[in-house]
Amino acid sequence: MTAEELKKAKPNVNFIKTKVFVEKPDIELLKSSFIPDEDMPEFPKIEKGTRIYPLSITEYPSVLSRMTAMEAGAWAITKCKQENWELELENFQSCLANLEMDF
After folding, report:
1. Is the entire prediction scored with pTM above 0.85?
2. Whose CB has fewer CB within 10 Å in the chain, the N or C terminal residue?
């Protein structure tokens, strides 16, 4: 799955780059640590059903220097589907941590 395919299939799912690891969903903390990306230049609009998955540059520096957060998220979703894992943040983080080690 590519970032474009992810946007079309799940328009309310947003992977964003953040300056720090955000453990609990806190909109103000997410907004203050948000890093604009080429495919996510502004903080996503919060609407009903919006899901925001923060990916910290401190946790995945190599991954996020090579791809956008949306590309990394799309890759993680694809990997989770291949492994028959639930599509949830902890599993996305596990996939990305393994990719980070590979880099």
Report:
1. yes
2. C
